[in-house]
Design goal:
The complex is a heterodimer. Chain A is mainly α. Helix content of chain A is about 50%, strand content about 5%. Chain A folds into two domains: about 1-75, no CATH class; about 100-250, no CATH class. Chain B has four helices and seven strands. Chain B has helices at about 10-15, 85-90, 100-105, 130-140; strands spanning about 40-45, 45-50, 65, 75, 110-115, 115-120, 145-150. Classes of the chains: A mainly alpha, B alpha/beta. The interface between A and B is large, with 98 and 89 residues. Strand 1 (about 15-20) of chain A pairs parallel with strand 7 of chain B, so a sheet runs across the interface.
Chain lengths: ~250, ~150
């Protein structure tokens, strides 16, 4: 982010950047930065707090008028207590011997979808993801890969390991859109999907399968970008990240 | 909290050890007062209109986002899953504060909101983004942008 500030500013565009990792900003020394104490992914803080967001932006944008660069200021956030909600009430996966993971996942999706449709005036794109397919279809891609059932690539222009990754991302988004009725806590939503839902279990199984694949791109996607590091069943090591990273780019 | 010391491993070590590009000098351009400036957003969240190509792998490309875009038309295809996306999904202003900029323009805090905004994918090598960033700057200048708000994830 800081490097982009330098490139834009030296090309004639004044910049102000929000900073999440202060160490990086101190090293790169972009022209103007406002460090915020929020979690990664939430540079403007808690969702649906327009006044807090406006206050932060007023402060950040005011730095644009200064030329005594490099400027790195800090932002003091108003502490908020997160409400963890009752996500157990939405889905709490307990495997039953009589049912396959596939049927558990599909039942869970049906329950969540009916809740989404009945309780929210769902806009057309509210729960839709990158692939542009229904959550049931995304889940089927995941389950078919686990079960070694041949499946058609819904986005043939994209490499299949990345399509599987996007299918999981889209499913996380669908679950978030249902879970957001209960809580806006990032940590709680993450734990719920990965540790408490049938779909999270299936995504973990997908990772295990992809890690066994002969193609290094499948292994790299599974190792690095399918599952948050905190939720990976097989722990992620720094050395493994370095080894896998070059294989993320598939040979097209 | 994105306070580095509080992040879980191996994310903390990876971020702490990330090679940062060195810049010998820092340019700070002068300009008119804020209320006379048109503002554009540059995000590194890997976001784009749904019909546009997703970011794949460690792409250093950028995508253009039209200023009249609606929140349900934007998707995120960032490679990393080690940052929160739920905040953006609940309220896109968390990472792409377009509604807030529109309000600040209506209040007269800024002059106007740009007609185009831009997104890169933050996990990619910054040096690889330089050409794209200079292209973005040229596009901004062509539409009279007087300040870029850079928003990471």
């Amino acid at each position: 982010m800081g490097a982009l500030s330098h490139y834009l500013e030296t090309s004639g565009i004044p910049t102000i950047g929000i900073s999440l990792i202060r160490l990086h900003t101190e090293t790169i020394r972009p022209p103007r930065a406002l460090w915020v104490p929020f979690e990664l992914g939430r540079p403007l803080g808690r969702p649906s707090q327009p006044e807090d967001q406006r206050r932060l932006l007023r402060k950040a944008l005011s730095l644009l008028e200064r030329t005594d660069v490099p400027i790195l200021e800090g932002w003091e956030a108003v502490p908020v207590e997160e409400d963890a909600g009752d996500l157990h009430g939405l889905a709490c996966f307990v495997p039953t011997p009589a049912k396959t993971l596939r049927s558990e996942v599909m039942d869970e999706l049906a329950r969540l979808r009916s809740r989404l449709e009945s309780e929210k005036a769902a806009g057309p794109g509210l729960a839709a993801g990158v692939l542009g397919i229904a959550p049931e279809e995304a889940a089927k891609l995941v389950l078919d890969f686990i079960d070694e059932v041949p499946a058609e690539n819904p986005r043939p222009e994209l490499p299949y390991p990345h399509v599987l990754k996007l299918a999981v991302d889209d499913l996380v988004k669908f679950y978030n859109s249902v879970g957001a009725d209960e809580t806006d806590s990032a940590e709680r939503l993450r734990e719920w999907f990965w540790r408490e839902t049938a779909m999270g279990r299936a995504a973990g199984d997908l990772r295990a399968r992809m890690l066994e694949h002969p193609d290094p791109t499948y292994r790299a996607v599974a190792y690095l970008v399918l599952t948050p590091f905190t939720e990976a069943e097989r722990p992620v090591e720094v050395s493994g990240v370095m080894e896998a990273f070059p294989h993320l780019m598939p040979s097209l | 909290m994105a306070i580095l010391e509080t992040l879980p491993e191996p994310l903390r070590s990876l971020l702490a050890g990330l090679p940062c590009p060195a810049f010998e000098t820092t340019t700070g351009l002068d300009g008119p007062p804020l209320n006379q400036r048109r503002i554009a957003i540059v995000s590194t969240a890997g976001i784009h209109p749904r019909h546009d190509r997703p970011f794949v792998g460690v792409s250093t490309e950028y995508r253009m986002i039209p200023g009249d875009v609606k929140s349900d038309q934007i998707v995120m295809s960032h490679m990393s899953v080690n940052f929160d996306r739920s905040g953006f999904q609940i309220d896109w202003n968390v990472a792409f504060p377009l509604d807030r900029l529109r309000e600040l323009a209506a209040e007269g805090v800024i002059a106007s909101v740009a007609t185009s905004h831009y997104s890169f994918m933050g996990a990619a090598d910054p040096a690889g983004m330089e050409a794209g960033a200079r292209e973005v700057a040229a596009r901004m200048k062509a539409e009279g942008v007087g300040g870029a708000l850079l928003v990471p994830v």
